[in-house]
Amino acid sequence: MGSVDGWKTLSIKECGEPLVPLGPFSPYRQIATDAIYFGAANSSPYPMAKLDGALVTIFVREGIANRLARATTMLPPGFMILVWDAYRTLSVQKALFDYFVEVLRGRGLSHEQAIEDAQKFVSIPSDDPSKAPPHNTGGAVDLTLIRFTPAAWKRMRMLTKAASVKETADNWRGIFKAEMERLQLIRQAELLDMGTVFDEVLPQTETCYYEGLDERQLTAHERKIRDNRRLLHQVMAAVGLSNYPAEWWHYDGGNQFAAARTGEGAIYGPATFSSENEEHEAIRRGHHFRCVNFAEGRQPRGKIEHEFYPFVRDVVAQTGNLRHTTQPMAAAI
What is the pTM for the complete model shown? Predict the structure, then answer.
């Protein structure tokens, strides 16, 4: 892969693909998600937990979603892709960039040098459509792999089948419960050891860091890390997603950042967040917070008059799941 130098100067022939949601209650439920900048699962690496403007839904361009779906079929049994971040609002981009600048300044860099070095990890926010930050295009994804125990994987396959049937007024409870249990299993799955945590600023975050070490001097643990990164890289490359060499978790397709490395044309400019996207996000966000209230023992505000409340409360109590849904009937709470 080539250098990313000059990527902002490349022309874009926007293809108009829409943003689509990944994860539960979407057509791409085979892809696990964790809205890490939203702090939905208490997994955020940031002291503020939630970045300004963060979404609870993971959105990508439709072409990227289809590539990720193909990649899942190439993984060994018991493995899933877990996406932490994809489409990013400009407010999140700014909050993230400012955070990295402060981290680097805390390490003794001048403000000017911190701004320069921060760009190795996150793009400067820009509303110029000719040089959109990669994540703002919907063509960039930050992801990893998770692994289930054999028993959990067997259960996951059964639940996925149960959750994939067409919804009716009579079966929505079964679909909702299956998705909630699936999300619990995903939270309990093992994150493959990739050597660093997500968004860490270290030399070890370079994708090929362990490839560059003497094989004879690698420990068993380091070989495991190297092999885990290889597996992720192999399935992403097989579906045409290009890795940013400075970050083992970052892959692109269709945007200028990918075009600079691959020589292929850029077809994704700034993504349009549609009214359908807004509706999807609003429903999932509202349901997420109501599930949090249930899990923490707080009753919803106002008169409890929906028959759905007891059911959803019981499911949350069983699964401990603080997640969310776009299931129309369940969303009524």
Answer: 0.85
